[in-house]
What does this fold into?
Amino acid sequence: MSTNLIILAAGKGTRMNSDSPKVLHAVAGAPLLIHAMKAGASLEPEQTVVVAGHGADEVSAAARAYDARAEIVLQTEQNGTGHAVLCAKDALANAAGDVLVLYGDTPFISPETLAAMTDARATYDVVVLGFEAADPARYGRLVMDGNTLERIVEFKDASDEEREITFCNSGVILCSREHMFSLLAQVTNDNASGEYYLTDIIGLARTSGLTSTAVACDEAETMGVNSRVDLAAAEAAFQARARRAALESGVTLTAPETVFFAHDTYVGPDTIIEPNVVFGPEVTIENGAHIRAFSHLEGAHVSRGAVVGPYARLRPGAELSENVHVGNFVEIKNATLAEGAKANHLTYIGDATIGEGTNIGAGTITCNYDGVFKHHTQIGAHAFIGSNTMLIAPVSVGDNAMTATSAVINKDVPDGALAISRTPQDNKLGVARKLMDKLRAKKAQQKGKDE
Ligand code: UD1
Ligand code: CA
It folds into this structure.
C-alpha cells in the first residue's frame, strides 16, 4: 500500500531561544527536519507534505533542498497537532493509501520501527507508535486493552490513575488518508489546552467501529528536541550510535569518543580513523584508507589506501584516488589527485587536477582566486612541484615536468620541462660579517647610554 508523509514542523521552539525555527537546528550536520524526512523516506512515500509555520520560508527551502518534490503547507496559527495535520488535507486530496504523521523535531525514528508500523496496519485501522517511558512526564498516555489501543489521553487531561500509565505516545501515527481526515473533522478543542489534539482520533475511531493498536519502540528513537540541551543530547546520541555502527562494520576508531560523524558519512571496512577527526556532510571513504589525527573532512571522497593527515583539511570537491597521500597542514578543495599523488606538507590545492604519481612540494599554493573569479590549475602525471611553488591559475604543468623551488608559475610548463622562476642568487663576500659588526656596535652604544 502506498504511504504519504505529513511532517509537523510549524512550532517555533520557544525554548531554543533562537531566530531560526526549531526544526532547522542541526544534528550531525543536517537539520532535524531532514532527519525526520530521511526516516519517512524509507517508506518510499508518494507525497511528502511539510506543515510549516514559524520560519516557513526557511523550512520550505530546507525541505526542498533535501527533496525537490516535498510540498509545503502553512499553519499560520498553532492550534494543536490535529489542526496541523488538517492543514495537509487539501495537499493530499488525491492521495491514495495511508498517511504517516511524523514530527519535524523528532529525528531518530528508525526504518525498522516504521516497517513494524506498516506491518501492524495489515490488521488494524490505526497504528500509533508508543514507548515505555523511563519518566512519562507530560507525554500523552496510551490506554490499552490487550493489543487494542482504546484512546490516548493527554497529560493535562489525564486522571491520577491514567497518569500512572508509563506506555506513552510518541506522536507518530499511521492510518488511511480517508480515516485520518474524516476522524480529524470530528475533533474539537474542548480540553485543558484548548487545542485540536491529533490524539483524539483514537477514541473517535473506536466509536466509529475502527480498530487501533500501538507498536512499541525504544524510547531513544522518540527523543524530541525542545531546547539546546536536548539538541546537544540528540547529537551525543547520534554520535554514540554512529561510532558503534562504524566499529561494527569493520572500521578501526582508535578513540571513538573523539570522532564526529555527519548524518551521511560512509566509511568502508578496514579504514583506520585516528583520534579527533571531524566529518562534515557528504564524505565517503573507501576500504583500507587511513585518516590520521586532527583531520577535518567535508564533501570529500577518499579511495582505498589513501592516507590523510595528521592535521589535513579536505573541503568540498576533494577527490583522492587510490594511495594518495595528503599530509599535515594541507588543504584541498575542489581538486582531484590521481593515483599515488602526494602533497605531504603545508599546501593549498584548490580548483586543480593533479596527475598520477605527482609530488607536490612543501608550501606549494595554487593561487586560484583573482578576487572575482576562480581559475583551474592542471598538473600532469609524474610531475615534481618544488617547495614553495606558487601556481598562478589558470595554468598547467605537463607530464614529467618540474618546477624549481620557489617558482612563481604564470605560464604553462610543457611536458618534461623544468621551470625556474626566481631572482638569481648574489653572494656578497664578507658583507654579512661587516653588517653584523656594525649592528653589534650600535647595540653596545645604546646599552652604554641607558646605564
Ligand atoms: C504531543 C502529543 C502527545 C505526545 C507528545 C510526544 C498531541 C495532542 N499530543 O504532545 O500525546 O506524547 O507529542 O512528544 O498530539 N505542531 C505543529 N502545529 C501545532 C502544534 C504542534 O506543527 O499546532 C508540531 C510541533 O512543532 C511539534 C509537534 O507538532 O513538532 C508536537 O507538538 P507539541 O506541542 O510538542 O506536542 P506535545 O504537547 O508535546
Ligand atoms: Ca513536544
